[in-house]
User: What shape does this take?
Amino acid sequence: MLKVISLIFLVFYNLGSLHSQESFSYAFITNQESNKVDVIDLKEKKKIKEIAVGEKPAGIALDSINSNVYISNPESGNVTKIKVKNFEVQNFKSGASPLGIFYSDNTNSIVVSNWYDNQISVIKTDSEKNTQQQIVEVGKSPAGIYISSKNKEIYVANREDNNIHIIDSDRHVLKKKVSVENAPFGVYSEKEIDFLIVTNVQSNSISVINKTTHDLIKNIKVGDWPYQAVYDFTKNHLYVTNQRSNSISIIDMRNYKNIKTINEICEYPEGIDISYKHKLIVVACWFEDNITLLDLESLNVLKKIQTSGGPRAFGKFILEN
Amino acid sequence: MLRILLSFFVLLFFNQNLFAHGPSRQKVSLKLDIKAPASKVWDIVSNFEEFNWNEEVEKSESNGNKVGSERVVSFKNGSKVKQKLEKINAEKMIVSWRVVETDNKALPVNSYAAKIFVKSIDSNTTNITYKSGFYRGFMGNDPPPELNDANSKIKVTKFIEGNLKGLKRIAEGN
Assistant: This one.
């Protein structure tokens, strides 16, 4: 009897997955010189599409529930929504010079940092018109953003104020300022981890902040001009791209030690993300105009894929199901 | 009147310093083959104290020839650009310079860094790759035309072309 039930279950399960969207694993890469988003198929390891967006696209935000990607266009003052299903685009207004961007799944909105305005905009994405916009004042030159739906907090790096603003995501009020080192730019975390990582471009360091207590745990030295970070759940290691040393620093997050540097990755490594499905570390190499794929296990470079021009990929950029 | 003028300049000064750079970075990368041995070319490229390549440059004064050394490059039009020797790798023949202070008339840039790669092709041919990354001259939003992305890129390209041309002339000369 049990066999029959499990057989029925299996049949239905498989039918269900047949009806749902096809399996995919894409990297969405913002290219500041070509004004395009390149879509890289990580299964085939090749570029499959170039999507025209706004001017000088920089930031990327992922909505994995509805399979949408959001792009910030700093020079055209708008945000582009890309539907993963058919790569259809829709633009909507933000503040002047949107840079950092993050999707909040519990409020179904995106939050962008407006570099020149010293503000963040909260833009609702559930209405077709996407016209509602709420403004929150932050520090000088806001860049990277992360939102914790569990803590109901927005974390913004203010590059010229050398601090992080922690903002209540419901009431939009400032809860705390955390001082970091010089020129904080990238902000990174995940649902499953307690810490928030900030890259301090001019101090050549990262700051580790506890998301719940808001304490600064540690500043850790990395390479020159760190840009972005990603955490490897299989090894408990954090990878940090260093733009001006062409390297990736590896931090052991069990003891916050910088344990290793992978040199000569590419010129100006910037955005970095992981595909667990295809066991890849994916790096956007701004100066080389390519995407460099590393094996997640061995950390060896596997392939370089040409992009349309000036890849930045600021924010997590891989969507896979 | 003087006070108004003064506060205007203060305001201007602050505006210029408010932002480290804009959100979109640019690059210029140029290559050139020189008919000279790589060792000879490298001697010129790696000598930070002597920068007499570019014909637009009147003089260059330096305080040394090691990582961290600085030099002031004076252009014939009166502009001055201060550069710093950031990295030098004699084994791989790569040198990296950074602009510390600039004059927008000569080089309208922010956070400018350049790398020069010297590569031996054969005993008397050397390939130079000259790469730079920078932000435009105007750091705020809505730049004036002369300091926008396009014009900053034109000026940087012209500067690098002048450097390469001069380097070729010196290295190929006797």
Q: What stands out?
A: Chain A has one helix and 28 strands.
